[in-house]
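Problem statement: downstream parser choked on a complex file, so we are re-checking the raw output for the adenosine monophosphate run. The parser issue turned out to be on our end (a line-ending mismatch), but while we're here, posting the original submission so the record is complete.
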Amino acid sequence: MADSCLFCKMVSGAIQPDKVYETPRVLAFRDINPQAPVHVLVVPKQHVATLNEARPEDALLLGELFLAAREVAGKTGIAEGGYRTVLNCNADAGQTVFHIHLHVLGGRPMRWPPG
Ligand code: AMP
Ligand code: ZN
């Protein structure tokens, strides 16, 4: 864990997130600044700063983020209507927290392409 990492503090319980779903390897919690009626972040419990740092041995973990997103969509009632998953990597994508996280957004129509 990176001592200064906000999402590692959520995983350790040093900061209490608004938890939606959890497995032994991933944690999902509500975004503090929601961009849609449902906006949940899915994070690996293991610290990985950006997708650029992911290694081949992280493949199962990355897959589990998407399976967790599916569970979150079901639990929050957006599975049938539809939802978007987003993983921002580095500055041009707007990444602000350097512990990878999958955004799960739903509850309203999404535009394409994203801005
Ligand atoms: P990104 O811009 O992809 O790095 O996304 C980081 C996300 O973390 C943003 O949507 C923030 O609103 C969210 N965020 C920042 N601090 C917190 C927090 N304390 N609890 C929940 N979400 C947070
Ligand atoms: Zn971290």
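For whoever reads this later: Strands lie at 19-22, 26-30, 38-44, 83-86, 102-106.
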